Each structure stands twice: as C-alpha cells, then as structure tokens.
Amino acid sequence: MSEIRRLQTFLDFARLGTVAAVAEATQYSTSAVSQQLEKLAGEIGVPLVQPHGRLLKLTAAGETLAREAPTVLDAWDRARSRALATTGEVRGAVAIAAFQSGCLALFPRLLAALRTEHPGVRVSCTQAEPDRAIVALRAREIDIAIVERYAGQHPEPHSDLAELYLGDDDMLLAVPAEWGPVTELTQLAEHPWVFEERGGPERAWAEALCHEAGFAPVVAHETSDVIVRCAMVASGAAAAFIPALTPEPLRLGAICTPLPRAQSRSLVALTRSSASADAAIAAVVQSLATVAVRTTARARGAGERSGLAAQASS
C-alpha cells in the first residue's frame, strides 16, 4: 500500500505543480511530500522531477509515469474489489466525507442503518468541504465524497468519478425572531448578513441571489460554520441562508422561511469509477441514498413548519 500511496502523491504533484500545493491539498507536510517523491524515484530507478528555477518540474520519465500511473491505480481498485468479492460477503472499510450540514444530518442515520444492514462494513466519517473531499477521493484517502451543488452553478464534469444524485435540500432564509417575518429579500437590503467566506460555492450563490433581488448584501460576518451562523442569527446580529438539513434545535431564536424550490441545493455522492465493483462501497452508497431521501424529506417538512409556525406566532 505504501507504493500505491507514493504513486498517488506523485500524481497529485503532476496535477497541482508544486510540492506546497500537494501538501496543502493532502494536509501532509512539504517534507513528507518530498520524501514520498524521492522514495518513488528510488524504487523506479530514475529521477522523476528536476529543479526548474526555485520549483520542480517533471522529467521525461516523470511525464511518462504521470500518463501511465492512473491506469495502475484504477487497476489496483478493481483488483482489490474483485479479491474481496470472492468471499461472497459485504465487508471491508469505507471512508466517507461530507460538508458540515451533511455530517450533522446524514452521518448519524447512515451509521445506524449500516449497523443493521451491513454489520461487516466498517465506516469512517470525515468532515470536508467539497473541493477538499474531491481531492481526498482522488487521492484514495476516502471512498465516497458527498458534495453540494447550488442553483445556477455548473461544476466541471469529473470523467474519473461516478456520481449519484441523492436529492435536493431546501435553502432557508433565517432572520432573528426580533426582526419579525420577512416576505421579500429586499426587506433585508440594509440589514447585516453572515455569509460563507469568499471562494465557496454557497457564497457565490448567496451573493447572486441577493443581486438578482436588486441589492448588494451587507456582509458583516463570514463563516462556513452553519452552527455559528445560526447562533449569530439567534443573537440578533445578522440574517443568513442556511440549509434545511440544519437540525431544528440550532434554529431556535430564528424565523426560518423556505426559499423557492428552484433555489434548493443538490446533494451528490461521488465515488471513483474504478471502485464501482467494490461491494462495500456500493452498499454504503445504496444506504446513503435511502437515508438522504428520508432525511431531506423530513428536513423540508421541518423547514416549512419552522417558517410558517414562527410567522403565525409573531
């Protein structure tokens, strides 16, 4: 497995271009990444990188390996899956990552379902935003990445990944209870907001939604943590957009009103195409799909109750 890991690290370098970028993407130290590249070159017997100014670039041998290595790693995935399949049992270790609200709403129910349905499958869960989760998936650090896609956004297709649509999660407008109900976004044109940090898909979606309504939002606070956002709304500090998957107890002190269904975000499970024959991964994906359908339906109902009940009581 160490050779497989080194080969993946090399491919990350070939794709990202610098040791520092690989270290940031994989959360390894730069020295650890450099050591992996050096050990791989020693095993193969030829230099794979060479100095180019203050950076490194691939040698001719490195470029050749970068073209051939994906086939090797895909073959490893398939061979491992077929070897496990000979037991006739659904068992093995599966690592899965999701963004925060996905972790809060989906992971507990998924783990409970798998304990009953597939006790031979050992699942480990990690919180990671979509960009980081996709890097980890390609690096074989995880086996399933749950990602989110917002209205109006069209991410680049992933030819090496398979995807399964899990359902839509409504987005809610959350305002402090003391502000009273809001029927139009323009009512909040002069009010403070708490948004995700710049660069994230939710931030781009939220800004676009406000601009379409005819105003530039006053972004007073920034955090990707939905729990912090809910706390700031409850304190009266700001308005926010939050997903319906956000557990109801976190919404106390806020009036939450569902946005039009067209503004829902889509939930998608990604796996490596080469691991499609892995019975354990397939079992987890199937259970995840069932859990997601039930959870998003429950969250949608809770969002509607939260908004309507809060407005009726105000």
From TrEMBL:
One of its GO terms (molecular function) is transcription cis-regulatory region binding. Gene3D superfamilies: Periplasmic binding protein-like II (3.40.190.10), Winged helix-like DNA-binding domain superfamily/Winged helix DNA-binding domain (1.10.10.10). Pfam families: HTH_1, LysR_substrate. The keyword 4Fe-4S does not apply. SUPFAM superfamilies: Periplasmic binding protein-like II, Winged helix' DNA-binding domain. InterPro entries: LysR_HTH_N, LysR_subst-bd, WH-like_DNA-bd_sf, WH_DNA-bd_sf. Keywords: DNA-binding, Transcription, Transcription regulation. The keyword Transcription regulation applies. Residues 1-59 form the HTH lysR-type domain. Belongs to the LysR transcriptional regulatory family. PANTHER family: HTH-TYPE TRANSCRIPTIONAL REGULATOR (PTHR30126), LYSR FAMILY TRANSCRIPTIONAL REGULATOR (PTHR30126:SF91). This is Transcriptional regulator.
